[in-house]
Amino acid sequence: MARINEHFAKLPAGYLFPEIGRRVRAYQAAHPSERVIRLGIGDVTEPLAPAIVDAMHAAVDEMGKAETFRGYGPEQGYDFLLEAIREHDYRARGVDIAADEIFVSDGSKCDSGNIQEIFALAARVAVTDPVYPVYVDSNVMAGRTGALGPDGRYGGLVYLVGNEANGFQPEPPPAGTAIDIVYLCSPNNPTGTVATRAQLERWVAWARANDAIILFDAAYESYISDPSLPRSIYEIEGARECALELRSFSKRAGFTGVRCAFLVIPKGVTGADPDGKRVSINALWSRRHTTKFNGASYVVQRGAAAAYSPAGLAQTQAQIAFYMENARLLREGLATVGFTMFGGVHAPYLWLRTKDGATSWAFFDRLLHEAQIVGTPGAGFGPAGEGYFRLSAFNSRANIEEAIARIRRVFG
Ligand code: MLT
Q1: What are the chain's domains?
Q2: pTM across the whole model
């Protein structure tokens, strides 16, 4: 008899976005003539930048010739991509990251789910609430939590509440709170808010004082337009000893369907073995990565590297500016009908307080049925998301303008 991992039984039946998809399909089946505008899952809509397409075409041609064909590549990523990352994402911001501290992968969702595998089941994990659900669910699957309680929280996890009072950027917990690993995301998914340098300094100081590790998800860093805001946790003194950083090409270069990301693990970050001996997290992850992963595809890595070329940078930055103009239009359009909103300035997500105290799923249904617009209910991101709603700015300009007009009709 093959016994299953019983921890999966603790999870609600469906992951958030497939559940939304199911409701939307049911609505469409019942109302086939309605045109639904999707501002739910944060999925890019602009085509790949020409510089990226050209680089991928050239790479495919190389793969089609005997003299330039390549089989398995280096598991950590090709040097041409590692060097581009080091130069543009780090050296340009005064941060020195070594090539062997970068692990190229096929996505930050996978990385954020997989990284917890190298920590003990007894490790005490903290998440912000609301939160990107993968951080929570992957720890549930591993058996690092108790059951889901009536309050929507899993036993054994520490929830750091983000709310209007703290601008949805929770502060480090009081000294003595037992936490070994904390997941932070800035610019934040789902609230679209961003951590300031001072806030990140407090987190790094806290992690060092408490011998904890920060898993810093910077998948949306390229949406930051204020140069004084940190785009990497390593811009903060001391972070190289306590933080891992997740980066993705999904939202910065339109790679949600292409798949490429990377995880940075400085060699100064250590954990403890059962005898208390310090162990390099970089070495453990290298062992794990090279065992379970054969590297992102050569063609994809050539495409990712092209995102750093002068043309690639200009083209992808224009796409980001386009999405952020969508976010501005949404923010200003919704303000005219009295919505209270957060985020959407340094991130492609707007976080709205629902109208009339509606629950976030009731608001989801109302928006779908009365305006034919799909968003994401805040409760799907954790109990502190109840009463809030996320709208994504990834869409065509025509759809964003139409969505604003519909929302104004329903709520005006
Ligand atoms: C989201 O909508 O939260 C994101 O698209 C999910 C993801 O990046 O996996």
Answers
A1: 7-47+311-411 (3.90.1150.10), 53-309 (3.40.640.10)
A2: 0.97
